[in-house]
Write a structure and sequence with these properties.
The complex is a heterodimer. By secondary structure, chain A is an alpha/beta fold. In chain A, the strands form two sheets. In chain A, strands 5-4-3-6-7 form a five-stranded mixed beta sheet. Chain A starts with a helix and ends with a helix. By secondary structure, chain B is an all-alpha fold. Chain B has seven helices and no strands. The longest helix of chain B is centred in the C-terminal third of the chain and has 33 residues. Chain B is rod-shaped, with a radius of gyration of 32 Å. Chain B starts with a helix and ends with a helix. The chains are: A alpha/beta, B mainly alpha. At the A-B interface, helix 4 of A face helix 1, helix 4 and helix 5 of B.
């Protein structure tokens, strides 16, 4: 009797351990950048290629950096949430367009000259924002994905909450659901806004 | 096999990185066996975050191609292996290392198997000792009374 009790106990312990493991998202890898200053960058702005933008421009207020691309399927799922967010909340939302052309497997990059890639990227990004709405205060173009590497981007879409001192306070990997927005991001922004 | 896949992946990576990103030094470095060996060794230490059970050396994911390119350019800049691994850990965390460092949070990861082994060995010895004492009982010579009972039983059987 005692013996069966132990076996049953061990089984229950193992089962609950595995149940917890199954409910975790294996793709959500904690970012070492949370709590650290956002990496500096300087990229051209989509709407005005003469202009560049760097994170230091937003010192003094919390803001969001959202990594997206037109080839990213989950971005389409996330986009309405961002459009709603931009309508309701007065927090700058900056788009980081990540590898717009070379991230899309349909292009043979060996046949595409660099300036053509930039032109194509701008055209595709603009078309996408026209079609789905533009929630971004501005979008910067990370053509080769180098800034993405500095931010530790590994799965688009990703969203970073950056505080008024330029420190990354949260990273959300994958599309933002309305729940994640309401339960995680908005409360954090409210706290940071004080 | 892995080496062959790596060469293939590298060839594909170089092919797609091709014209736009490549410069003379990239091609020169691909031909430099020492730098190429370092790139391979480092890539095997690093996990591809897109297909999480592959190394950057094995993975054909876009990110792995980008990270190999990044490693190559850091090798070209004369950075040490540790500097390159630190660069990756600063961006992607310890998870990017195929051999996680031993520290507080990874203690169970490293110590767990040893702990389980010790528990197993302990259980095995406890079982063997119990079993030995049971067997010891069985090998004890029969007492006179037991011997006569057996004799009686055997005789009874013969008579049937």
């Amino acid at each position: 009797m005692n013996r069966y009790f132990w076996i049953l106990g061990a089984f229950a312990a193992l089962a609950s351990l595995l149940a917890v493991g199954l409910s975790l998202n294996p793709r959500a890898i904690p970012s070492p950048l949370v709590g650290k200053p956002a990496p500096a960058f300087r990229l051209t702005v989509l709407d005005n290629p003469e202009q560049t933008f760097g994170p230091e421009a937003l010192r003094g207020k919390p803001w969001l950096l959202n990594v997206w691309a037109s080839w990213c399927i989950s971005c389409r799922q996330e986009h309405p949430v961002l459009v709603e967010f931009a309508k309701k909340v007065d927090v700058p939302l900056i788009g980081l367009n990540y590898k717009e052309v070379r991230g899309d497997s349909e292009f043979d990059m060996s046949k595409l000259p660099a300036d053509e890639e930039v032109r194509l990227a701008q055209q595709r990004a603009k078309a996408w924002l026209n079609a789905h709405g533009n929630p971004y205060r501005l979008t910067v173009m990370d053509i080769d994905g180098r800034v993405g590497i500095d931010f530790g981007v590994y799965g688009v879409p990703e969203t970073y909450v950056i505080d008024k001192d330029g420190v990354i306070r949260m990273k959300h990997t994958g599309p933002i659901s309305p729940e994640a927005l309401a339960k995680k991001i908005l409360p954090l922004l409210a706290e940071l806004g004080q | 096999m892995i080496a062959r896949v790596f060469v293939l992946v590298l060839a594909l990576g170089l092919g797609s990185a091709g014209v736009h990103a490549s410069s003379a030094w990239e091609a020169a470095q691909a031909a430099d066996p020492v730098a190429e060996k370092r790139l391979q060794d480092l890539s095997r230490e690093l996990r591809c975050l897109v297909c999480q059970n592959e190394t950057i050396a094995d993975s054909n994911a876009d990110l792995a191609v980008d990270l190999r390119r990044e490693i190559r350019s850091m090798i070209h800049d004369g950075r040490s292996d540790n500097e390159i691994l630190d660069f990756m850990v600063a961006r992607y965390g310890d998870f990017v290392l195929y051999r996680p460092p031993v520290k507080g949070i990874t203690l169970l990861l490293w110590g767990g198997p040893v702990l389980l082994l010790l528990l197993g060995v302990g259980a095995l010895f406890a079982y063997l000792r119990r079993r030995a004492s049971r067997l010891g009982d069985a090998e004890r010579p029969l007492s006179a009374e037991e011997a006569s009972r057996i004799e009686a039983l055997l005789k009874e059987n013969d008579n049937k």
